[in-house]
Amino acid sequence: MDIVLVPGLWLDASSWDLVVPHLTTAGHTPRPLTLPGLESAETDRSGVHVADQVAAVVAAIDSSSGPVTLVGHSMGCAVAGAALDARVDKVAAVVYVGGWPAEPGMIPAKNFPSDGADLPPVPWEEFDEADVRDLDRATFEALLRPSPASLTSEPFELGDERRYSVPAVFVCPEYTAADLQEWVADGTESVAAIPKHKEVTYIDLPTGHWPQLTKPTELAAIIDQSIGRSGA
C-alpha cells in the first residue's frame, strides 16, 4: 500500500528517512513529503498558504493508483486531516503521530511566534524535557528550517464529515494514551475532533515528540499494524 508521510513543523521528507526502509521491507510504498515552504531554509515562504500544504498532500493521494494510508506527525496531523477531508474515498486509514486533526476553523499553530513570512523553529532550550527524550540534538537541529508563518494565522477549512468514518490511530509519544483520553473526556478544544471518529485506536510509544527519529522501527511497525487493522 502507498503510505503518504506528512511531516510536522520545520521538517521535510528526510525526517522520515529512518522509517521508510522498515515500511518498504514490510511490502509498502512509503511516500514522504516535503510540504510547500519547507524546500530549504532560504525558501521564500511569503506566498505559501495552509491550502497549499493541504493541496500537496491531496496531490500525493491522487497520484496513487489505489487507497492510501495517511500518516501525519504533529502539525502535519492537521494537514493530513484536511487532506483526508478532501479525499475521504481514497484513504483507507489515517495515523496521527504526536498530534491530532483540526476541526473546521481551527488554527493549531496560532500560539507559535512568527518572523515575517517564517515560523522559525523553537530553540532546543525551550522544549520540555519530555519532548526531546531520546533525541540527538545535533541530528535534530541539522534537519530544521522555518515553516510558513501562514500556519499561525490561517484556519483549516473542512467540509466532509465522512472523514470521521475512516479508521484513525493516535500514536502517543511524549504523553500517554491515558493522557490523551483524559483530554478528550475533559472536552479539551484542541482534541475536539477525536471523539467524533467512529473507529479510534490509541497506542503508546514512549519516547520524545519525534518518534520517527528516536523510535523509527517501532513507529513503522505501528503504521504497518494500522494498515492491517483497517482491513486495507
UniProtKB/TrEMBL annotation:
Tell me the InterPro entries matching this sequence: AB_hydrolase_1, AB_hydrolase_fold, Sec-Metab_Biosynth_Hydrolase
* Gene3D superfamilies linked: alpha/beta hydrolase (3.40.50.1820)
What Pfam families does the annotation carry? Abhydrolase_6 (PF12697)
Q: Which domain of life is it from?
A: Bacteria
Residue intervals of the AB hydrolase-1 domain: 3-221
In alphabetical order, the GO MF annotations are: catalytic activity
Protein name, per record: Pimeloyl-ACP methyl ester carboxylesterase
Organism (species): Nocardioides albus
Highest lineage ranks of the organism?
A: Bacteria, Bacillati, Actinomycetota, Actinomycetes, Propionibacteriales
